[in-house]
Predict the 3D structure of the following.
Amino acid sequence: MAEASTARLEADPYDPDDAAFARQPVWSLRNAGQLLLALLVATPSIYATALAYDGGPASCASGAGPLACWRLIAIEQPIVAIHLLFFVGVCLLLWAISLVQRSCWLIDLYWTLVPPLAFGFFAAHPAATSQPPRASLVLALVLIWSLRLTYNYLRRERMRFGAREDWRFAKKRREMKGFWWFSFFYAYLSQQVLLLGLVLPLWAIHHSEVPFGAFDLVCSGLMALGIAIAHLADTQLHAFMKANAERARRGEDKVMVLDTGLWRHARHPNYFGEQLFWWALAGLGVLAGHPWVVVGTLLNSVVMLVVTIMTEQRMVARGERASAYQAYRRRTSMWIPWFVRGDA
């Protein structure tokens, strides 16, 4: 999945002067339409969840009908059911929308929304059980995580919905003639594996009789710390990019590398915060008696490592900041905030 670096200069994902923003003002019919689309696209999955647990007949016997069969799958195999929901309601639906709009932007927004929706799906199961206050605490933290990441997305995109897509998807779209079909696997099906792997601990805490204890508090505290680190890192990055945009407008040279605050001690502190959150949630799944749920978290960490490599390749390929970033890499930890090595 790692991509070769390229000397092509691309629009910075945080640059407020990106032309895509100018083409789609906040107060425009297009932006309002994209917002409405984002709000409505989850409706089929929410409705399907309501039908699954409405108490109707649950059977896959001959003549029972697809709705009764869906109820049976959801009740007896909730993990299989949520994969079916994601495949139809996210992979197929969002992919079809992307073919019309020629943009995969919606999957970025739904990355922030799927975990709380998955929590609701597992919590609504008739056999769901959790030792108080474990589920309530996790729900609060997942909602805070979702609000934080959604806020960061909206801040980065300056309240434009679908004005542009993730640079990795945009790059592949330019490079591949057949990206329209490849995008189904690259942008959507891969996200199903990652996201539904990450939320497995949410299933675990709703199928556990293990009493709530001190280690639950430790893991919950680490989840909160991960949210705080990621938010602070993203806020520092956003302020840095805005300051650089102001410098450019004044005709001044940009600062090539952010190496202050958390970014002085790690090259990707926002990624570290995210990983801390998910591993602490996985820890809660282990405490609930289902250690196998860490498989999804481990897979996500591997993919995040690949994404980190891709991001750094992109940075060193940009001629105006390559040498500064190389020096930054030599003296600064990659993920875990640590002491700064001697100036290189």
Notes: Residues 19-40+77-331 form one domain. Residues 1-14 have pLDDT under 50 and may be disordered.
